[in-house]
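User: Quick sanity check before I run a bigger batch. Here is a single chain. Can you write out its predicted 3D structure?
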Amino acid sequence: GASSGVEHIVLLKVKDDATDDQTRAMIDGVNALIGIDGVISVSIGKIFVEGDWMADRTRGHNYALRVRLENREALRRYQDDEGHQKLLKETIAPILSELPPTAVDFESPLVT
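Assistant: Done. Predicted structure follows.
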């Protein structure tokens, strides 16, 4: 079935000199956002390009994340959440080469 909700998509440009520990902390921190009320699912990963058949359309972004939320009110709670704000300020922002990161939000039914 399809239930309506909000998708929050973020494209990140993580610095080349970010350490494995720093990127792991970012990934673990983003995955922990599942604990915020109204968050349905979370996904984050390193962007890849299969060189033999994919054009590079990344525009320099090397990580992407997606958060599925129940509605716009849940998105507002997510944005204002203290843990989310702390993660951005202390863990994510220091390893990004471009701030703010590219982000979009849209409402859609989730088709499964």
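Helices lie at 20-32, 72-80, 82-92.

User: Great, the batch can go ahead then.
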